[in-house]
Amino acid sequence: MQIGIKHQNDLAEFNNCMKKRPTYSTTTSHKQLKLSEVGKVYPIKKLDQAEFDKATLRLIIDTVSPFSFVEHPAFVNYCKVTSNKVPASRRSLMRDVEYLYSKMIHEMISELDTVNYVCITADCWSIFHKSYIGFTIHWINPQTLERCSKGLACRRMIGRHTYDNIAELIDKVLDEFKIQNKTTLIVTDNAANFVKTFRIYSNDNDNDLN
To answer: What b/e sequence results for 2-29 when a residue is b if at least 16 CB atoms lie within 10 Å of its CB, and e otherwise?
Structure first.
């Protein structure tokens, strides 16, 4: 009663606002979804053998798994249960990897052909009594001025990490990718074999130019 007497105008406005508020029913029933309607539903696509082999190849490459994995009885059984497919043989996958590798090298050479200057890095390491040398390459895209980087090569080193072996492998990689006259800088660590490589062979190149 006190509210009605002291605040008649405010009470009337409050009641009008309450009448205008929308009312929601709490007893609204919802139709139960079917199992196929839960989440995103994509049309079922029939997987052919070529697509299955391609997916298997990507699995081997991306997980750095041995080729013998596709012939493991557990993997063969998994393929039969999940897709009713038989995985390609190890020899077939090896041929496919060699084809993809050749294609990738060709595409990289074509891409580097449009670049005037590149910088590479080189490093040697040993694991399981075997030695390797790896290269990365870096350049500026002449159109977008974007910095680009890629793994260039990884080669097995036969013998010791001597300066002449390192120089020979560097020369072979530069020749393979046709970047002998485009390489402005080679970044390495300060190991004695790398230092000697560039001290001796850079002097030879200077003499040839003179």
So the answer is: eeeeeeeeeeeeeeeeeeeeeeeeeeee
